[in-house]
Amino acid sequence: MTDRPAAAKSHQPDPHVRRILERAELEGVELVRFLYADHGGVIRGKAASRSRLAERLTTGIGHTVAMMAMNMLDQLQEVEHMGPVGEVRIVPDPATYVPLPHAPGAAAMLSDLRRLDGSPWDACPRTFLKDAVAELATEGYTLVAAFEPEFTLGRRLPDPAGGPDRLVPIDDSLCYAGTGFDTAHDYTIKLVRALETQGLRVEHYHPELGPGQQELSVRHAAALRAADNHVLYRETVRGVAMRMAMWATLAPKPLAGQAGNGAHLHLSLWDDTHNVFADGGEVLECFIGGLLAHLPALTALTCGSVNSFRRLSPRAWSSAYAVHGPDNREAAVRICSPLGETGEPNLELKPSDSSANPYLSLGAVIHAGLDGIRRKLDPGESVDVDPDTRPGRYQRLPASLDEALDALEADEMLMEALGPLRRTAYLAVKRSEAVAFSGMDPSYELFHHMRVF
User: Fold this and answer.
1) Which residue of 89, 195, 196, 372 could cross-link 200, Cys pair, CB 3.0 to 4.6 Å?
2) How far, in Å, CA of 95 to CA of 169, rounded?
3) How far is CA 406 from CA 188, 251, 399, 412, 443, in A?
4) Domains, the chain, ranges and CATH?
5) 419: left (phi over 0), alpha (psi -120 to 50) or beta
6) Which residues of the chain, if any, have pLDDT below 50?
7) Per residue in 203-252, pLDDT tens?
8) 150 and 262 in contact (C-beta within 8 Å)?
9) Number of neighbouring beta carbons within 10 Å of residue 108
10) Predicted confidence (pLDDT) per residue in 272-317, tens digit
């Protein structure tokens, strides 16, 4: 009996398949990684050999349902329908095929998790984003997005005292300083070339505020592509570093007392003709209103780890209050002024980092903004000062993962959007992570987030 999903039998071969097979042979690819992001925010997957690639592009690769109940410490949680019994398929999207310059002989595709009959699985994060995009389309809109990630570059060294490994930054240069450019130059050029080879168009780069901290952004894209891009970005940042005997981490706060790593989420909303945020009218205001109304709950998905909340502190330019304002870098939602005559206005959601599952994060943001549009939610006053200078006036965002998860459980709209299986598994995984790190020495938390993200 074949393990091909029933729904796939009636389809003609995807037009991308022949191109993929030809490219794999021409480029000497031996293994193709089928990648997905789990509820812990970890990028996982399996690889198909070139000899079986034609078949696996259709059938996918078998996978236990239990993996979506695994937390970032590889601790399996008890979630109904995610135990030892049950199987899904990791089914790649042929349109996302890219070579991996940092891993010669390997390529990758972003993947969906599907049932044995080929239908979407209720716990598939990529499907969650696809469904959010489709729901937004019913109102006549598409979302264009880009993650703006920061990461820390250094070396992973044993702790002389026998504790967890330490991350030693590559430099101690100042923010935007020329010495920072020079110290990380060889790595940065390799990274840029690797990203461009995979179709990720690099926009900007600079050494950031903290020791070894880098910021490199890639061009915006339609929502699904933006999330796919962020998965590839994360893998490439770390992969290039490993090939150079270095260590890169996108963890929100890998070094105590130093600047945190965000992945600010930039958003613009389009109809058939133009960027509707450029109009500056009701749609923009209501979209912001939706983000702010759901923001305490959203942080459980956009800032998806215990470590995230070390970063979300007042006066750290990471946002700690549910406010909005033009070019206000302490506001949770910053209204960005356009660059030049051809630039497009966009929103920047600052409470966002790379420990989040980008599909769940961006999908939830779409649902929140769409709820604002449909219910015409008022975003409140625009704030043009640091909100922390006005104590008690503005809503403080959750100060811990547990608080954020409480807010998520209380948010009926987001819980409904997530669906029963996905929300049950996500809450179980994230609650277990909160418990696992509670009471532990901070070095334990910092090490595991530096290691995983």
Assistant:
1) 195
2) 37
3) 40, 23, 11, 12, 26
4) 6-117 (3.10.20.70), 131-452 (3.30.590.10)
5) left
6) 1-10
7) 999 999 989 999 999 999 999 999 999 999 999 999 999 999 999 999 99
8) yes
9) 26
10) 999 999 888 899 999 999 999 999 999 999 999 999 999 988 888 8
Instruction: Give the Cα separation of 21 and 103 in Å (integer).
Output: 18
**Which pTM value belongs to this model?**
0.93
Cα–Cα distances (Å) from 60 to 52, 112, 117, 319, 378, in that order, read: 10, 9, 12, 41, 45
Instruction: Please provide the DSSP assignment of 282-300 as one string.
Output: HHHHHHHHHHHHHHHHHHH
Which tokens is 215 given?
Answer: 């910021």
DSSP state of 209: S
Beta-bridge mates of residue 381: none
Residue 343 burial (CB < 10 Å; 0-12/13-18/19+)?
exposed
Q: What contacts 435, CB < 8 A, 6 or more positions away?
A: none
Taking the C-alpha atoms of residue 140 and residue 160, their distance in angstroms, rounded to an integer, is 59
Query: Coil, strand, or helix at residue 376?
Result: coil
**Which pair of structure tokens corresponds to residue 140?**
């006549």
